[in-house]
Amino acid sequence: MKTSLRALFCAGVLLAATLPATTASAAAAQAHTARCRIVASKPAVNQLGQLTAVGSRTGNCFGKTRVRVRIKQFVAGPDKTLKSGSKVVRTAKLRVRTTCAPGVYYTQVTGRFGQVVNSRRVNITTCTPAPAPSPSPSASPSTSPSATPSATPSATPTGSTVGTAVENEVVRLTNAERAKGGCGPLTHDAKLRTAAFNHSADMSAKNYFSHDSADGRSFGDRLKQAGFSFRAAGENIAKGYQTAAQVVQGWMNSPGHKANIMNCTYTHIGVGHVVAGGPYWTQDFAKP
Questions:
Q1: Cα 137 vs. chain centroid, distance in angstroms?
Q2: Which among 217, 200, 222 is positioned nearest to 277, based on CA atoms?
Q3: What is the mean pLDDT of residues 30-46?
Q4: Which three-class secondary structure string do you get for the chain?
Q5: Quick one: pLDDT band at residue 166, thresholds 50, 70, 90?
Q6: How far is residue 215's CA from residue 201's CA, in Å, rounded to a whole number?
Q7: CA distances from 177 to 65, 183, 261, 263 (A)
Q8: Which of 30, 105, 117, 264 has the most CB atoms lying inside 10 A of its own CB?
Q9: For residue 190, what are the CA distances in angstroms to 108, 145, 157, 166?
Q10: What is the mean pLDDT of residues 100-113?
């Protein structure tokens, strides 16, 4: 397949070189190329720790053609094609994925009229996935809170018996970030921790990654079922991070997650960490 594509590309170059630039076929190809573009995006690590690349055919394109997207590794000698995929489209985005390993990669996209576009090369040093932000991160609860919330739930001070050592390290690092922005420390609450841990455990057991539970419950529903009545609440989740420091830094690098961490309205937190299949991490924030 490589040979046939290279041969097709070379034939196109020779054809263009042997015909006058003013011929109708050459003019049509040039006009089409000007208004119909092939785009290659740099490879990146997705939320599952895979190496992924996106190519697209965009603009005022007429007719359908086969667009091929390749993930290529920049190595000594001929560059290696690690993954290739194609589809006949008019305009569309195509995505290919492969197993991630450290190295230098780029995306190559081929299309009609001998179009070949390479993205900039990127040096992948780690395959740790990025956390997925909430579809619409918000400091407000996703469900309407009671107008007359119940008594403030009993709070257990940070560093006590609430949660594991790893979970309490997430609380400590989160409070350290909040202190930089002038926010008060969060108290690790037993009920919020139960809600957070149960959600991480559910994602682990049922192999999904979402703020909504597999049975359709929202994070607000889970907090209420854990017995925590709130006036404001938020949630961060992440998957694949190996340490407390890595996951907190990942959240701080994401505007939506950072907004939850740096929301000075919140007074309480619960952290749930489950290793199997992830690790899975959940942070639940609330103000009683």
A1: 14
A2: 200
A3: 74
A4: CHHHHHHHHHHHHHHHHHCCCCCHHHHHHHHHHHHEEEEECCCEECCCCEEEEEEEEEECCCCCEEEEEEEEECCCCCCEEEEEEEEEECCEEEEEEEECCCEEEEEEEECHHHCEEECCCEEECCCCCCCCCCCCCCCCCCCCCCCCCCCCCCCCCCCCCCCCHHHHHHHHHHHHHHHHCCCCCCEECHHHHHHHHHHHHHHHHHCCCCCCCCCCCCHHHHHHHCCCCCCEEEEEEEECCCCHHHHHHHHHCCHHHHHHHCCCCCCEEEEEEECCCCCEEEEEEEEC
A5: very high
A6: 14
A7: 51, 9, 8, 11
A8: 105
A9: 51, 20, 10, 15
A10: 88
The confidence score (pLDDT) of residue 123 equals 92
Q: What is the mean pLDDT of residues 147-157?
A: 32
Span 9-14, mean pLDDT? 26
Q: Any idea what the Cα angle at residue 199 is, between residues 228 and 265, rounded to 5°?
A: 45
Q: Which tokens belong to 100?
A: 């991630």
Cα distance between residue 182 and residue 243, in whole Å: 25
The residue among 138 and 257 whose pLDDT is bigger is 257
Q: How confident is the model at residue 127 (pLDDT cuts 50, 70, 90)?
A: confident
Annotate 143-173 with b (16+ C-beta within 10 A) or e (fewer): eebeeeeeeebebbebeeebbeeebbbbbeb
Edge-to-edge strand order for the sheet containing 268-274?
187-188, 268-274, 280-287, 232-239
**Cα-based torsion angle of the residue sequence 158, 161, 165, 166 in order, rounded to the nearest 10 degrees:** -70
Contact assessment for residue 238 and residue 229, using Cβ atoms and an 8 Å cutoff: no
**Distance (Å, whole) CA 201 – CA 31:** 56
Q: Which of 147, 232, 224, 149 lies closest to 192 in space, CA to CA?
A: 224
Q: Is the pTM of this model over 0.85?
A: no
